[in-house]
Design brief:
Chain A is mainly α. Chain A contains 9 helices and no strands. In chain B, the strands form 2 sheets. A 6-stranded mixed beta sheet of chain B has the order 6-7-8-3-9-10, sandwiched between helices. The model of chain B has no long low-confidence stretch (mean pLDDT about 95). Classes of the chains: A mainly alpha, B alpha/beta. The complex binds adenosine-5'-triphosphate and magnesium ion (MG).
């Protein structure tokens, strides 16, 4: 176990990358999620269809496959991405699909009367969406989105496969150097666990606040 | 001057024809009460007037702006927005925005639709809240208001857009009996205001008798009978209206 502490710098760097990838992917995933949710609800037929296919494909294929497609697959078309960039792109696309489902569900949960009241006072349907429905849907969507984020935190370990020096990859590098497995694996497991727990606690606090608001 | 007019207006959901070739005319300043059994199409008619429902056949004309069944999308949208700016609607379930305060509800469309500066919008909004007697509730969220207060805020929200026409769809049906009065009082006050045209779906007979200029009785998607409130309630001409009134009076 001393080895773990001796190499804390490398492991913390790994944890930093893990968090970095998760946050960046969540950020862009949120954009994708909102766009896709709106496309499915308000787009014309081809747009709705495209959005559905996207969600279905992403949810129906392993994240690891999506990651290697972005990192290795695109090379065939002359698109060479750094591992970190590829990881963030792949995971943004991945998480966007899951977030879009949460957001779509949240939008659908807002009573139709809200939109009608907005329309009746002269708003366009987009104004009604942005000003009246989305703010309410956001509160509904925050708990499932938070859980998606925590899932994402763990999912980032997949990008060790394309040599992004995140947490799991750091452990693998250390293992290759010292020829011991368990302490490093246990060490990073604990680090993942701590990060998840911290974010769960934050989420819980946010949920508590949301539940008593208005 | 005619404010509301429908011409052979029909509305069908799939094969179910809910409104059957309705010809309706309401003049400026008229207070018209729309009565009829459940499912007769009262809400649908109201919602066709401000385009919350599409028309299957016929046309609606509000203050000279026309909506027609099968109208081109672009023209339809322009006219729709124009009509909605001239009409306010009050719903059975209030439909206040829960994430906004009373004042926030009232001024939302002033800010978004009329693009009014906030201070000016708030001034106007407060005036509207004063009219419905709720100036002191400006910062209260809807969840902290009684049903009657919520409905009055909803009325203030409709008034803020300074419409020529107000559509009420059973504004007191969701209220506890002791809260009905305060909402009806506000509606009476509006009816006294010159020029406001009101079309009200309600089962409040006292309101219909005392305030309305005219009563329309609807059944199965058709306006079966219309007349002055006094004569309609005393002596309905059609058997369907008689049956309806008997049923109501039993309660
Ligand atoms: N969105 C819809 N889809 C299908 N049918 C509908 C829809 N909305 C209303 N209807 C039908 O249209 C008919 C008229 O409904 P409407 O709500 O206009 O009646 P109403 O006179 O307002 O009744 P109530 O007094 O119960 O409010 C009913 O038979 C109803 O089932
Ligand atoms: Mg109704």
């Amino acid at each position: 176990m001393e080895l773990v502490f001796e190499n804390w710098e490398l492991l913390f760097k790994g944890a930093y990358y893990t968090l970095y990838i998760a946050v960046i992917s969540m950020f862009f995933g949120l954009f994708i999620g909102v766009t896709v949710a709106l496309a499915r609800l308000k787009g014309n037929r081809p747009v709705r269809w495209a959005a559905r296919v996207y969600v279905s494909v992403i949810r129906g294929t392993p994240a690891l496959v999506q990651i290697v497609i972005v990192y290795y697959g695109l090379v065939d078309y002359g698109i060479t991405l750094g591992p970190l960039t590829a990881a963030c792109i792949a995971l943004s696309i991945n998480i966007g699909a899951y977030l879009s489902e949460a957001i779509r569900g949240a939008i659908l949960s807002i009573p139709k009367g809200q939109t009608e009241a907005a329309l009746a006072t002269g708003m366009t349907s987009w104004q009604a969406m942005y000003r009246i429905v989305l703010p309410q849907a956001a509160r509904v969507a925050i708990p499932p989105m938070g859980n998606t984020f925590i899932g994402m935190l763990k999912e980032t370990s997949l990008v060790s496969f394309i040599a992004v020096p995140e947490l799991l990859r750091s452990a693998q590098l250390l293992i290759a150097r010292y020829y011991v497995n368990m302490p490093f694996y246990i060490g990073i497991a604990i680090m993942y666990w701590i990060m998840s727990t911290v974010f769960s606690a934050i989420l819980e606090a946010v949920e508590k606040r949301l539940s008593k608001a208005y | 001057m005619t404010m509301i007019q429908t011409k052979k207006l029909s509305k069908a959901y799939h094969d179910n024809e809910v409104l059957k070739s309705i010809d309706l005319e309401v003049r400026q300043g008229e207070i018209v009460v729309l009565l009829g059994p459940s499912g007769s199409g009262k809400s649908t008619l109201l919602r066709c007037l401000n385009g919350l429902e599409t028309l299957t056949k016929g046309a609606v004309e509000i203050n000279g702006v026309r909506l027609e069944a099968g109208m081109k999308n672009r023209a339809f949208k322009t006219n729709l927005l124009q009509i909605r700016k001239q009409t306010g609607m009050v719903f059975q379930q209030f439909n206040l925005y829960p994430h906004k305060t009373a004042l926030g509800n009232v001024i939302e469309s002033l800010l978004i639709v009329k693009k009014m500066p906030r201070t000016q919008a708030e001034q106007l909004g407060m005036k509207m809240l004063e009219r419905v007697g709720l100036a002191d509730k400006r910062d209260a969220y809807p969840s902290k208001l009684s049903g009657g207060q919520q409905q009055r805020v909803a009325i203030a929200r409709a008034l803020a857009m300074e419409p020529d026409i107000l559509l009420f769809d059973e504004p007191t049906s969701a209220l506890d009996p002791e809260l009905v009065g305060e909402v009806l009082d506000v509606m009476r006050m509006l009816a006294r205001d010159e020029g406001m045209t009101m079309l009200v779906v309600t089962h409040e007979m006292s309101f219909a008798r005392n305030v309305a200029n005219r009563v329309l009785f609807m059944d199965e998607g058709v306006i079966v009978e219309e007349g002055e409130p006094e004569s309609f309630f005393r002596q309905p001409k059609t058997e369907r209206a008689q049956r309806f009134l008997n049923k109501i009076n039993q309660h």
